[in-house]
Amino acid sequence: MKALSIKDIAQKANVSITTVSFIINGKAKEKSISDGVIEKVEKIIEESGYKPNQIARSLRTGNSNIIGLIVEDISNSFFAKIARLIEDKAYKRGYKIIYSSTENSIEKARELINMFKSRKVDAYIISPVKGLEEDIRVLINDDKPVILFDRNLEDIDANYVGANHFSASYQSIENFVQAGKKNIALVTTDIDVLQITERYEGYKKALLDYGLPYNEDLVLKVHFNQDEQETINQIKQLFNNDKIDAVLFATNYLAISGLKVLKQIRKTIGNDFSVIAYDDHEAFELHTPGISTVQQPLEEIAETVIKLILSQLSSKTKLPIQEVIIPAKLIIRD
Amino acid sequence: MKALSIKDIAQKANVSITTVSFIINGKAKEKSISDGVIEKVEKIIEESGYKPNQIARSLRTGNSNIIGLIVEDISNSFFAKIARLIEDKAYKRGYKIIYSSTENSIEKARELINMFKSRKVDAYIISPVKGLEEDIRVLINDDKPVILFDRNLEDIDANYVGANHFSASYQSIENFVQAGKKNIALVTTDIDVLQITERYEGYKKALLDYGLPYNEDLVLKVHFNQDEQETINQIKQLFNNDKIDAVLFATNYLAISGLKVLKQIRKTIGNDFSVIAYDDHEAFELHTPGISTVQQPLEEIAETVIKLILSQLSSKTKLPIQEVIIPAKLIIRD
DNA sequence: CTGAAAGCGCTTACAG
DNA sequence: CTGAAAGCGCTTACAG
């Protein structure tokens, strides 16, 4: 059973495929097709269940009504939630999203961009890895709308939407200091991307401003791709230092590993030991006591990304580059 | 800057596009192209960075090397994890995955199938909603490989991979009974899909087998699409009944709502009150005390799905329908 | 050993 | 008010 084509519809209606095409694309009025013909063709399309072949349309027009979304890991709840919000919003505007995970690998990211390119996606939303600058530049030179989100790249002039990681991290430390904490640890990763280094800078700057010494022994940078067990071991070792009275986890999955450690070594979170996690997670609200978190405004990020993409998609001329920095919110729980 | 086409490569190499096409598709030997020509063309392709236009290829061949994955909600960690595993495995075999969420709406599911159809995906992996039977039947009649997973549909003969929900639910209740529980509650949803009704049936059968009465007041069926606050209120009301000494939550998000209630009403989980949650979640391991869960073997489900899809994709003839039921595991924590 | 040509299903500039 | 025809970039049956 072969699918119907525009030719079949044209034959059934006794008109040319040109006429059918105009009607399908809402250009009937503009091309002054008579009302009778419009009605007849629409009825036949309706009855036959004909759906235009999008592949053929893409080949001809060079676009696809598809936006490519590249994230680090779709199974991370931060990305899963952002993806879902972006999908919803794009869908309402007639765009579909296809997404894929880079797993923080340049090669995989590059392959994904190539795949999207050869599928002629109309625009790219990318949570990039370092080293991808050149590939992104090529897309931009090609006049493809590109929005980076979550993490920016230093050597590139691209649209960007993300939270103010430096200031969120700074505020977290400030909060600890005001509660009288003296030995504040940071658990972060060794990936060299801005949204992580900014959290580190915020940590350092806050210590400096409040006259606390920076102590290397209190900073743990775990290797990005390592086993969780390895991470757990390293955190356990860090927590051997019982001077530590507060800790900021730079990502939600590090915080989860950290909480597992605390459970294992039976250290309780309370007045003597405070925790803040970067990026919320359902486990944090449920935890006893509740875990304070830095919350990025997911809804606002998704909305801004889609708005920027759509305005670029509908604009004939190249729009100026925009960087939108959205404040993150510190939620204190106990 | 227009992208290169096969024509450009043919011109540069002074051969026909037929020759280039054969070389790209690894048919050079079979078509006995001379080694010199192969080398020359491959060098030009390499140097120019030429990538074949997949859209054109799809239009011509009618397939796409893309598998469509339709889930209920990609931001649910069960689906996010399955999606990621399937993506990895498919990727290694040269297939890309595009995924999208139905949000349990027949209309959205139907639109997604149509979108995938018009994009000529090669195969479908679907976590279906009831009412989609006819649409799925059309795909199967069209000789498209289709695998349902997580939940099966009653009136349809399709390949299926999923956990044994009845027996997992039965075992959970058995576990409660053996611990001496008498008033075991069930919190589930009102969606009418097999994987949910089977959990309900398992609950009832276990009570029956162990001589416990079935008490309607102990079963809460919350409405699928309602606000979480509403769910929380209903669970709170259920827990007013302080005879209840154990509760099985039929999904992980219901369990999360339930744990929030327990925290609010300051009821502690322990000897007097036991909890089991269906589908694991990071929050459960971290919870104090740890929450026992029914774990579906994600890895095995993903692997089986991909295997079935690939064997259908590579088989010329229609393969017999297979239903693979994989046991779920009850993990007891405290 | 290699190529000319048809055709996949559309859109659109041009013609009348 | 409507249609014939070119062309998007490929693959492949056929011919030599």
TrEMBL record, chains A, B:
Gene3D superfamilies reported for this sequence: 3.40.50.2300, lambda repressor-like DNA-binding domains (1.10.260.40)
Domain HTH lacI-type: 4-61
Alphabetic keyword roster: DNA-binding, Transcription, Transcription regulation
Statement: the UniProt record of this protein carries the keyword Signal: no
InterPro entries: HTH_LacI, LacI/GalR-like_sensor, Lambda_DNA-bd_dom_sf, Peripla_BP_I
UniProt entry tagged with the keyword Transcription regulation: yes
One Pfam family hit: Peripla_BP_3
Protein name, per record: LacI family DNA-binding transcriptional regulator
Organism of origin: Pedobacter jamesrossensis
Lineage summary: Bacteria, Pseudomonadati, Bacteroidota, Sphingobacteriia, Sphingobacteriales
